[in-house]
């Protein structure tokens, strides 16, 4: 028998079944209706107190439930431009982490049978806003990794198309990411710097005056992303990658020589390099690049001082790379015939300063030049054995 509502509350608080405040409030609120409400002497203020406590606690528990759910929910990820050098490997990496069906590859290219067997693949032209919107809605996309682009050397050969794909395409994905509250990752590049930038080392924040349409479009993406973050709270994340080295065919960038040299040397024993032997550029094995991307996407927002970070693993010249290769492959010949890509390389960073990424979200490269050469020889040999041909 309880003589007051306070007595009842105190009693319940010490009952073993009152495991949380919500249970207590639900039971006390119900009882307040059945016992106290009907009793004429119960003060209405007590009922109001219990009613509000019940409502607030239920609301609180709903909010907590949502927050916990978000924390543990596996994100649904869409990769645009996914059949390029980075996309296929990226999908494999993220599918291991988040499950095969949670990572959707997309591109405008017809996929191989292997790609189709690997996991979900759909056609997405990033210039088609409505089509992209339909995919985001129908597949319940949470994170968008935007890889579609025309790279530095290819971009210079078709500037109007580069403007469309690299600039208009970013307008589409950023607007969608804002509308549907997606986490948006857009890679940038060492090509976002130019001849006026300090080249050794190139810090995270410095002058950016690139001289390629590729670089201009990447600076545009960086600035637009930061603007949307500040103005609309968009969870925009961007890493400036150096040349990424993998055994897959490169997409027409200035650092591609560091991939082609392995394919040519292992197949023909010779390679003609389009850069001078002493051209120093920052580089990274794809394994480090994908780990950086994944760790950065996972990093809590409050750790991120910036939305755009430099990342790198090493810097080398064609001469230094081939010297490291010669420890594993005794006999091959390199010739040098610099072309227009030399001018691009000469305007880019030589050594990339990624200390801010290391400080803010603990970025740390693992693959150095020796490891890179060992990995590439193994991986390219496997590719040649499977395909029997050079990358196109
Ligand atoms: N590979 C590197 O070394 C490197 C370095 C720094 C930054 N990045 C950036 O990473 C991203 C991926 O690079 P990558 O090397 O895989 O590029 P890639 O050139 O190999 O692939 C780009 C893909 O975009 C697709 N694409 C072109 N137009 C499209 C359209 N309208 N709609 C949809 N897709 C379209 C192409 O079909 C292609 O498969 C790019 O944004 C690039 O700028 C790459």
Automatic annotation (TrEMBL):
Pathway: Amino-acid degradation; L-threonine degradation via oxydo-reductase pathway; glycine from L-threonine: step 1/2. InterPro entries: Epimerase_deHydtase, NAD(P)-bd_dom_sf, NAD(P)_epim/dehydratase. GO terms for biological process: L-threonine catabolic process. GO terms for molecular function: L-threonine 3-dehydrogenase activity. SUPFAM superfamilies: NAD(P)-binding Rossmann-fold domains. Residues 77-311 form the NAD-dependent epimerase/dehydratase domain. Catalyzes the NAD(+)-dependent oxidation of L-threonine to 2-amino-3-ketobutyrate, mediating L-threonine catabolism. PANTHER family: L-THREONINE 3-DEHYDROGENASE (PTHR42687), L-THREONINE 3-DEHYDROGENASE, MITOCHONDRIAL (PTHR42687:SF1). This is L-threonine 3-dehydrogenase, mitochondrial. It comes from Trichoplusia ni (Cabbage looper). The lineage of its organism: Eukaryota, Metazoa, Ecdysozoa, Arthropoda, Hexapoda.
């Amino acid at each position: 028998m309880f003589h007051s509502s306070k007595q009842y509350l105190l009693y319940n608080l010490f009952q073993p079944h009152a495991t949380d405040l919500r249970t207590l409030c639900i039971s006390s609120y119900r009882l307040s209706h059945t016992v106290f409400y009907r009793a004429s002497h119960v003060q209405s203020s007590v009922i109001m107190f219990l009613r509000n406590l019940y409502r607030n606690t239920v609301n609180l528990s709903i909010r907590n439930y949502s927050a916990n759910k978000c924390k543990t929910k596996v994100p649904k990820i869409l990769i645009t431009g996914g059949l390029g050098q980075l996309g296929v490997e990226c999908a494999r990496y993220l599918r291991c982490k988040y499950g095969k069906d949670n990572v959707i590859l997309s591109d405008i290219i017809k996929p191989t049978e292997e790609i189709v067997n690997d996991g979900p693949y759909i056609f997405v032209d990033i210039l088609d806003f409505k089509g992209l919107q339909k995919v985001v809605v129908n597949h319940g996309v949470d994170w968008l990794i935007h890889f579609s682009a025309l790279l530095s050397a290819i971009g210079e050969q078709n500037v109007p198309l580069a403007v469309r794909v690299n600039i208009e395409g970013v307008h589409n994905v950023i607007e969608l990411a804002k509308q549907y509250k997606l986490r948006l990752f857009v890679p940038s590049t060492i090509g976002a710097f130019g001849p006026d930038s300090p080249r050794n080392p190139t810090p995270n924040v410095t002058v950016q005056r690139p001289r390629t349409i590729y670089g201009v479009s990447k600076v545009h993406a960086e600035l637009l992303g930061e603007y949307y973050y500040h103005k609309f709270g968009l969870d925009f994340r961007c890493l400036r990658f150096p040349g990424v080295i993998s055994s897959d065919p490169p997409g027409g960038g200035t650092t591609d020589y560091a991939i082609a040299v392995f394919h040519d040397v292992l197949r023909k024993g010779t390679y003609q390099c389009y850069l001078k032997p002493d051209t120093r550029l920052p580089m990274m094995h794809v394994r480090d690049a994908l780990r950086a991307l994944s760790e950065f996407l996972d990093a809590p927002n409050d750790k991120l001082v910036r939305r755009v970070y430099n990342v790198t693993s090493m810097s080398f010249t064609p001469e230094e790379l081939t010297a490291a290769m010669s420890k594993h492959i005794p006999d091959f010949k390199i010739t040098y015939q610099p072309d227009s890509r030399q001018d691009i390389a000469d305007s880019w960073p030589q050594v990339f300063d990624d200390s801010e990424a290391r400080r803010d979200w603990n970025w740390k490269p693992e693959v150095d030049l020796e490891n890179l050469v060992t990995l590439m020889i193994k991986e390219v040999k496997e590719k040649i054995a499977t395909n029997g041909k050079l990358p196109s």
